[in-house]
Amino acid sequence: MNLVTLYTQSTPAWEALMIRRLFTEHPASVGEGYFEHMGQAFSFAGALFAAGFVCAVHAIFPFLFQKTGSQAICRLHERMVSCRDKRAGQESRAGVEPASSR
Fold it and tell me: Is the dihedral of CA 32, 35, 38, 42 positive or negative?
């Protein structure tokens, strides 16, 4: 039975497989499970929320948090872009220069 036949039949098993795929395809693409990816995403969300808050305070009081927002962005970039894909280890980072050496 091919995929077109399965799709056109729209069986509960096929629908369950497609729903599961929606939740696992992207996490797997970066070498994580669903809950591990969820934890990482919430971690980034918290850091972004905190950085946004200090940037808003800085907008009103420019003498406060003068470098905090940009430092937070650099740290997040290092975590997300330079060290993200867990599947290939160091090979996935080839050609990516760490932010600290720039």
Answer: negative
Task: Pick 17 or 95 by higher pLDDT.
Answer: 17
One-letter amino acid at 95 equals G
What's 99's DSSP letter? G
Only one residue has tokens 């003068």, namely 66
Distant-in-sequence, close-in-space partners of 32: CB < 8 Å, separation ≥ 6: 40, 86
- Distance separating alpha carbons of residues 35 and 27, to the nearest angstrom: 9
Q: What is the pTM of this model?
A: 0.62
Compute CA 50 distance to the chain's CA centroid, rounded to the nearest angstrom: 17
Identify the residue whose tokens are 């600290």: 100
33-50 burial by CB neighbour count: b if 16+ within 10 A, else e? eeeebeebeeeeeeeeee
